[in-house]
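Re: [ENG-882] Designed sequences occasionally contain unexpected residues at chain ends

Forwarding the minimal case from QA. Structure tokens:
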């Protein structure tokens, strides 16, 4: 774990729930871990068969720890840890492999405090879902039950699971129907 105050790793029970949900699409997946923090979600994705992970984190210490942890599990060649502002990630879809799975775990305050910060962080999540591969899944971690109806209706079919004081929402991007 990096010595970073804002890092709030997902509890083991919640991680297990996420990966059980993703079990059918994790093998060979490209994963984007946005606000990666400790990198635990991306690292676990690699251990469960993901092809590659792009971890986006702005904190230098967290990036160093993610890289060290990837080395420990012999996955450095499949983990790209980018010191980058999360808001730049949607633009990277042209230079990075488009994601099959997105983990989105912004600071709780970005959701809880409301106002323009909340609007901006939710829009970032929506922008990321736009670059998600069809059939892929985007997972967002928030304080318990915090997303509002008008936010949820922007992603039809979004599901919610609560784990203590946290909620996980996942949304599967539809596969385009062929005519």
């Amino acid at each position: 774990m990096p010595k970073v105050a804002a890092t709030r790793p997902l509890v083991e029970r919640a991680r297990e729930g996420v990966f059980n949900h993703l079990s059918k699409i994790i093998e060979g997946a490209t994963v984007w871990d946005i606000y990666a923090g400790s990198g635990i979600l991306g690292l676990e994705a690699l251990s469960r068969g993901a092809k590659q992970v792009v971890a986006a984190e702005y904190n230098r210490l967290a990036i160093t720890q993610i890289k060290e942890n990837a080395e420990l599990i012999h996955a450095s060649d499949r983990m790209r840890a980018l010191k980058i502002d999360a808001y730049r990630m949607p633009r990277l879809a042209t230079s990075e492999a488009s994601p099959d799975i997105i983990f989105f775990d912004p600071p709780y305050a970005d959701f809880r405090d409301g106002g323009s910060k909340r609007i901006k962080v939710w829009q970032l999540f929506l922008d990321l879902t736009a670059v998600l591969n069809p059939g892929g899944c985007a997972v967002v971690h928030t304080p318990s039950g915090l997303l509002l109806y008008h936010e949820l209706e922007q992603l039809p079919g979004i599901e919610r699971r609560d784990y203590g004081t946290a909620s996980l929402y996942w949304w599967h991007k539809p596969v385009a129907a062929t005519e």
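QA comment: On inspection the terminal residues look reasonable. Residues 26-31+44-51+84-172 form a domain with the Rossmann fold fold (CATH 3.40.50.150). Proposing we downgrade this to a documentation issue.
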